[in-house]
Amino acid sequence: MEFRKQLGNDSETIAQQYLEQRGYMLIQANFRCKTGEVDLIMQKENTLVFVEVRSRNSNRYGEPLETVDKTKQDKIRKAAGYYLYTHPKMAEYYCRFDVVSVLWQNDRPQIIWIADAFQ
User: Fold this and answer.
1) pLDDT 10s digits, 55-112
2) Higher pLDDT, 67 or 15
3) Cβ atoms 78, 97 nearer than 8 A
4) In a domain, 119, yes or no
5) Distance CA 118, CA 51 (A)
6) CA 118/CA 112 separation, integer angstroms
7) What is the domain extent for residue 57?
8) Count of domains in the chain?
9) 97 domain residue, yes or no
10) Does the residue 76 lie in any domain?
């Protein structure tokens, strides 16, 4: 279990750095509430981005992106809605949902970023 937690933490850090290099600013990491969790909340200009980070150390059982099913999307949407409810000034921004996949191979991350993933 410890390995999985560390893999997730490392992947979230890599995803955050990846997005920051592209001009996004971290607003909050690991926002948790009763309805769910958002891994990263990022902002670029007038866009607020709720980011789900998925990682695996092998694609033997599929790609990390494949694990973001409708149920997971609904939980993220509800958590994002609660975040906006508790941060009303942020509700003025255009909001979208992104997914960042981090596949670790030979201790190196391969990153796939899908902007506006919940269409």
Assistant:
1) 877 667 667 777 788 999 999 999 999 999 999 999 899 999 999 999 888 888 999 9
2) 15
3) no
4) no
5) 11
6) 15
7) 2-114
8) 1
9) yes
10) yes
